[in-house]
Amino acid sequence: MDTENSCENPCPISRSLSVAGDAWSILILRDAHAGLTRFDQFRKSMGIAPTMLTRRLATLTEEGLLEKRRYSEHPPREEYLLTDAGRDFLPVLFMIGAWGRKYRGGGKLTQFFDAETGTEIQAIAVDEVTGAKIGTRPMRVVVPDER
Amino acid sequence: MDTENSCENPCPISRSLSVAGDAWSILILRDAHAGLTRFDQFRKSMGIAPTMLTRRLATLTEEGLLEKRRYSEHPPREEYLLTDAGRDFLPVLFMIGAWGRKYRGGGKLTQFFDAETGTEIQAIAVDEVTGAKIGTRPMRVVVPDER
DNA sequence: ATTGTTCGTATCACTTTGATACTAACACTT
DNA sequence: AAGTGTTAGTATCAAAGTGATACGAACAAT
Lengths: 147, 147
Fold this sequence. Notes:
Strand content of chain A: 15-25%
Mean pLDDT of chain A: 95
Radius of gyration of chain A: 18 Å
CATH class of the domain at 6-89 in chain A: Mainly Alpha
Oligomer: homodimer
Structural class of chain A: alpha+beta
Largest sheet of chain A: 2 strands, antiparallel
Largest interface: A-B, 80 and 80 residues
Distance between the termini of chain A: 23 Å
CATH architecture of the domain at 6-89 in chain A: Orthogonal Bundle
CATH topology of the domain at 6-89 in chain A: Arc Repressor Mutant, subunit A
Number of strands of chain A: 5
């Protein structure tokens, strides 16, 4: 795709997709949230080719969702940690997961529980202002005019 | 990627991504939510090559997010409408958009308002059970054992 | 000295993509 | 009747991206 549409495009979805709009990037972020930090952990978890992984980790680092940290000087070893921007991707992951759970739910699925209450987490998107579920009320779209 | 991981993989995120894990598909769904239904509308809106668009529309239709409807017999013309599954993708779109708004927010952005209250929609993900924002409380992950 | 671990790079066949041109089936205008 | 316009694609093909595999560098451990 044309990934150079960052600041031109008024659509916030396009802008996000130009950063993490492919499946590998999203899976890396998923695994990073699950606590993985190292090249080989990602590689084994996802079965991704090392060339791909190198590129994706570099992009996510450049784009500020991950940061490299040296965890060993001898030999030099880096690990990849989530930044704030990367951590804030979690709601996206949960909504993607919620859709998959509902529409591709056959067989066994990974589950997420609230550690305090012990209840299974049911992620939904709401408008923080009105409290209404996204998609349940009519909305008005305002597209900025060009230039 | 390996797109044949539908029912094998216990991760609901992987399953969703095997259906709509590329930028074009997500942008088509965005435009479909904005009311576009026809081939040329999508093509002009996104600047996508017709070969790509044909394939993506076919995939989304096969996967049950869109459905074809004939709107003219002479000449034969089809349009693409969101199914329930497609409509339920809206929360994903809003969360992706929310991230882009927060971390790639320079310049003019499309805005969404609640038609009743007139307030700008601030999409967040919450756990419907506890009401807590996703990511603010510790959670426990349960991965099903193989076989 | 040999084996193992970790984080990659090199190579290369294969697949996907994207730009462009073109077609089919009409309607509409002159 | 001929030409123009609209819609929904298909055909072609070069360029780019992907992915499997092998290999390398820099050590640690035995």
